[in-house]
Batch of 2 targets.
Target 1
Amino acid sequence: MRILQSLLLSAVCVIPATFFSVSQPSSVSRTSQTTWTITATINALVFVPDSISITFGDSVNFSLASPHDAVEVSEATWQVNGNTSNGGFQVPFGGGLAAQLGVGVHYYVCTPHAASGMKGRIFVTAPTSVRDEPRSIPGVFQLFQNYPNPFNPSTVIEYLLLSPGNVTVAIYNSLGKRVRVLYSGDLPSGTHSHRWDSKDDQGSLMATGIYFYQVNVGGLVQTRKALLLK
Ligand SMILES: [Cu+2]
């Protein structure tokens, strides 16, 4: 019995070790992580770059001169240049690391200069293994609120593709009639944006009102509201 136990134990110990050493090489390159750097210098009221796309698991290193700091805020706060922390990362001037940001968009501002528009965004995509999926499987994507909103005469529609896909971006009026196709075609993963100049497919300017912008990726649809206010 004791011999059988020790045989079992040694089998349990040996097999996983062998398994891991065999499977490791193919996954090493896909799990490598990157550290990205965002800087803010003394005299410029900007973060450089003010927008980056990273992969989940990457780190962001802020290198911030006095008196610029970086505080994560909600999307709504970011849109109006507010500076109320949403409890996310806070990097004091001097700098530091904001690690383990979740998939999605992280909005941040410089606390003393948010009102001047000193702000940025970090787009975090899922790990690269998502991109290894066959292209016939619809990719997950995230559609953001257009900006500015309300708008006149143009606004930007932005979305994040977590894998490549066939994309159609269209505008509908409040009656549900499609008035404009902004884009139709294949796109790689990452962040994409299109500007809508408030014209329909015939080139006529649309009237004040609520419009819906819809992004279709391989049959998956997301719709959001935009307000054209003249
Ligand atoms: Cu600042």
Note: The CA atoms of residues 180 and 202 lie 8 Å apart.
Target 2
Amino acid sequence: MVTVLKMQNICKSFVGEGGGEIRANDNITFTLKRGEVHALLGENGAGKSTLVMNLCREPDSGTVILNGEKVELHSPRDALKHGIGIAYQDLSRTLVERHTIAENILSLATGFLLSPSAIEEAIREALVEYDLGELDPQMSIWKLSGGEKQRVEILKALITNPDILILDEPTSMQTPLEVERLFSLIETLKAQGKSVVIITHHLGEAIRISNRITVLRGGKVVDTLDEVRVEAMKKEPEKGARELAQLMVGREVLYDLERKGLQEGPIVLATQDLRVNNDMGVQVVNSVSFKVRGNQILGIAGVAGNGQRELVESIVHWREATGGNIHLHGEVITNKPIKEIRDRGVSFVPENRKKALILNMSVRANLMISYYADTPGLFVDREAMIKKTDGLIKRFSIETPSPLAPVRSLSGGNRQKVVVARELSRQPPKGEQLLLIAENPTFGLDVATTQFVRQELLKMRTAGAAVLLVSSDLTEIMTLSDMIAVMYKGKIIGVLDASSATRESVGLLMGGVVGETSNVGEDELIEA
Ligand SMILES: Nc1ncnc2c1ncn2[C@@H]1O[C@H](COP(=O)(O)OP(=O)(O)OP(=O)(O)O)[C@@H](O)[C@H]1O
Ligand SMILES: [Mg+2]
């Protein structure tokens, strides 16, 4: 097969806080052949996004060779002009929230299609052609779910019909159905002789979709697995995934979680007939009642966009509850000030991590938020605080050149780790249990960190915390939860005891199919 793209001896460094050098790409050579899907894997911070960014921003050294010719690419538009469409990972940088889908696409594609109406028409056609589902071109970006934004980003990369498509974590927020659609799209593109680079933390997906796989670690290429090796992995994907994980981290990754049977504790959180609107004023949580006990993980399963986001946001009062009640430790906290709720020992890992971080502030400062509230007494022991935050950086292996580096400079996954580390390490008020609300807590995290975070969630459960886990990842829900509630169109349509639930039973409920066995334990869960 012909090589369409070669990135040769690429070096890209960043200056860290205190002047230290971060070698994000250290002499990387990467090739892409015509008609192949090439997966790019590596831990959070391995340098994957940086490598891709060299196609729209000059590397420090090294060459980019496109169809045999050396090129210099300075901007995303440059890349597009050369037939390279890139769906970037950090959507907060590439999509303008206040603008519509059409405006976002127009701004990039100016010069190739001129009028807004022509763009809208092109978007509608492309959505059908690429089977990317429904999206209204006139919808503003801020109104979209994470998954929808990812689809806009993919569309933006595809709409100029590039020869090379680069997808940086395109599936992290997609439902299984959307992932299937994207994969058949990739197959179609491949059949047309196009080439695709895909970055993902889902190793099974990588094995399934790709022809070759390159693994990065610490800014260097560890290995490129050729077609023969990837083909062999397709036959034994689980074994393959373990091999890949080992290549990524350089040691064996622990796959088995330790999960003890526990006596359930007192009720920590209970909602009653809770009703919540979405950003457009439409009621998307319709009379939801449930409770979560100490020593218990209640998993809320469901296809993203069925009210889960609004539900959890209303509990922490990031969003108004329009009806019903929320009880914490038996007291009504509905629409109470955010700080008050937080101070009563409510931790929140939101899917939108940007909202939980102050990007321009240091890693340490971000980890310290709420330390004051959690520490009794008038005086804050600075030394202890620094010791604690430095300990968290180590324990959660947050890759940062220094505790003083701004969070903005961290890779996507490492930013997420900052939020998780902070929220999972909070102290509940004396004599009470912590309530941890985790919304897709492992999305964007590499395999090893995902396992680590899941183990930490289980440890919190053992320590007595009540955990409300919202996840669109069925595996995550199944492996962690004690009880599983499935949300569909704003309602909890079924509650299952996790020990007897199957992927099929939960999957059917997620699709809105209510069967005979779906209400096991519902009374136990709902009667307050
Ligand atoms: N603009 C920047 N300024 C400073 N450091 C940066 C910048 N961009 C990336 N880095 C650093 O370069 C390294 C590689 O980051 P990169 O975003 O390429 O990782 P990644 O493999 O894409 O990780 P993830 O899976 O978390 O997305 C990280 O240590 C990151 O902190
Ligand atoms: Mg990245």
Note: The radius of gyration is 23 Å.
